[in-house]
Amino acid sequence: MNKPLTLKTKTPPPEPLQTNNYLRGMLGRDIIVRLRFDDTLDGKLVWFDRWNLMLNVDGHDVLVFKHAIDTITNPKGSKT
Question: Is there a domain that residue 79 lies in?
Fold first, then answer.
Protein backbone atom coordinates (compact mmCIF):
# COMPACT_ATOMS: atom_id res chain seq x y z
CA MET A 1 0.00 0.00 0.00
CA ASN A 2 1.41 3.36 -1.03
CA LYS A 3 1.67 6.16 1.48
CA PRO A 4 0.85 9.69 0.35
CA LEU A 5 3.85 11.89 -0.37
CA THR A 6 4.33 14.70 2.12
CA LEU A 7 6.82 17.52 1.93
CA LYS A 8 8.88 18.05 5.05
CA THR A 9 10.49 21.35 4.19
CA LYS A 10 10.30 24.16 6.71
CA THR A 11 9.99 27.18 4.48
CA PRO A 12 8.95 30.32 6.34
CA PRO A 13 5.73 32.00 5.33
CA PRO A 14 6.16 34.91 2.91
CA GLU A 15 6.85 38.26 4.52
CA PRO A 16 4.05 40.81 4.29
CA LEU A 17 4.57 43.77 2.00
CA GLN A 18 5.04 46.18 4.87
CA THR A 19 4.84 45.41 8.54
CA ASN A 20 1.98 46.93 10.49
CA ASN A 21 4.50 48.72 12.72
CA TYR A 22 5.92 50.50 9.66
CA LEU A 23 2.45 51.52 8.46
CA ARG A 24 1.42 52.58 11.96
CA GLY A 25 4.31 55.05 11.94
CA MET A 26 3.15 56.42 8.57
CA LEU A 27 -0.46 57.23 9.59
CA GLY A 28 -1.29 60.80 8.61
CA ARG A 29 1.89 61.18 6.55
CA ASP A 30 2.37 61.56 2.83
CA ILE A 31 3.32 58.29 1.15
CA ILE A 32 3.85 57.05 -2.38
CA VAL A 33 2.27 53.70 -3.28
CA ARG A 34 3.60 51.95 -6.39
CA LEU A 35 1.13 49.41 -7.71
CA ARG A 36 2.10 46.16 -9.41
CA PHE A 37 1.39 47.48 -12.92
CA ASP A 38 3.61 50.62 -12.74
CA ASP A 39 0.86 52.98 -11.55
CA THR A 40 1.51 55.19 -8.55
CA LEU A 41 -0.67 56.91 -5.99
CA ASP A 42 0.53 59.59 -3.62
CA GLY A 43 -1.43 60.91 -0.70
CA LYS A 44 -1.88 60.76 3.05
CA LEU A 45 -2.30 57.40 4.73
CA VAL A 46 -5.69 57.55 6.48
CA TRP A 47 -5.99 53.98 7.85
CA PHE A 48 -5.04 50.40 7.14
CA ASP A 49 -6.00 46.90 8.16
CA ARG A 50 -4.85 43.41 7.29
CA TRP A 51 -5.93 43.55 3.63
CA ASN A 52 -6.42 47.22 2.65
CA LEU A 53 -5.18 50.70 3.15
CA MET A 54 -6.99 54.01 2.67
CA LEU A 55 -5.27 57.00 1.08
CA ASN A 56 -6.51 60.55 0.82
CA VAL A 57 -5.50 61.55 -2.72
CA ASP A 58 -6.34 65.16 -3.64
CA GLY A 59 -9.27 65.20 -1.21
CA HIS A 60 -10.68 61.83 -2.33
CA ASP A 61 -10.46 58.68 -0.23
CA VAL A 62 -9.02 55.78 -2.22
CA LEU A 63 -9.16 52.17 -0.99
CA VAL A 64 -6.15 50.10 -2.11
CA PHE A 65 -5.92 46.35 -1.66
CA LYS A 66 -2.52 45.33 -0.28
CA HIS A 67 -2.12 42.48 -2.79
CA ALA A 68 -2.05 45.11 -5.57
CA ILE A 69 0.84 47.06 -4.00
CA ASP A 70 4.45 46.65 -5.03
CA THR A 71 6.16 49.18 -2.73
CA ILE A 72 5.31 51.89 -0.21
CA THR A 73 7.75 54.77 0.24
CA ASN A 74 7.91 58.09 2.03
CA PRO A 75 8.66 61.01 -0.32
CA LYS A 76 11.96 62.76 0.35
CA GLY A 77 11.64 65.78 2.58
CA SER A 78 8.17 64.85 3.85
CA LYS A 79 7.84 65.43 7.59
CA THR A 80 4.06 65.43 8.03
Answer: no
Residue 57 lies in a domain: yes
Residue 49 gets the label, from left (phi > 0), alpha (psi -120 to 50) or beta, of beta
20 membership: H or E segment, kind and range: helix 20-26
- Is residue 7, in this structure, part of any structural domain at all? no
Whether 69 contacts 14, CB under 8 Å: no
The pLDDT of residue 30 is above 50: yes
pTM of the model: 0.67
CA distance 62 to 78: 20
* Residue 33, domain CATH: 2.30.30.100
Whole-angstrom distance between the N-terminal and C-terminal Cα of the chain? 66
